[in-house]
Amino acid sequence: MHPYFSQRKRLAPWLGFQRMAVESARGFGDRATLARQLNRLGTVHRHARQFDQAIAFAEEALRLHEEAGDQVGIGSTLIGLSATYRHMGRPERSLLCCERSLRIRLEIDDQYGLGITLTNLGATHLALGDPDTAITHYRAALESQRRHGFEGGEAITLHELGKTHHAMGNADLAVEDFLAALRIHRHRDDRFHAGVTLRELGTVYRGLGRITEAHEAYRDALAAFEEIDDRYDAHLVRDLLTR
Asked: What is the mean pLDDT of residues 164-193?
């Protein structure tokens, strides 16, 4: 069920499912499963913008992974924490989590996790006002993700690269990045991330004066968010359509 919810982001049923998963793991005393499910519960709370709860569950997961010596789990949970801190406007804390995760991914040769960590490092450096370092990390992530065939990670990295090119004033490159990300999102039927990319693409089009294309991208984004009942992101897109 987790892959389904991670692509659809139906927050209410996802939250209910993850709470049951956590309660079940606690009831059985399965600490390894409990740690994984707590980390996922933290992810749901982050998407619901309930950041304090997200941190609390991720920190509990981190303690369990550390007690078990589960390096893969530690590296993954640190990235969840880093994303939450970044969304809270605390990129310095995010950077500490990313750097520790990177050390672990390299030590255990976790190639799948390495790409995710490098992408999060890029996003964190962009939040810190260092887009050049961000792009270096994105390019390293893409090289790893393409070599190993991690399409979902590649699409997210392309999206983040587009945001960085846009922030640097390279709108044409941003469009290329977003369109490449969108092709993969649609191929994987990842409606949440497709909506996010369409929203960003619309904003770039609007800045280029391509208003018709901007509104088309916004409408497609709105349709994606409404389909998965993502009310927060749907509200943001409706506001963009009225400007």
From this structure: 97
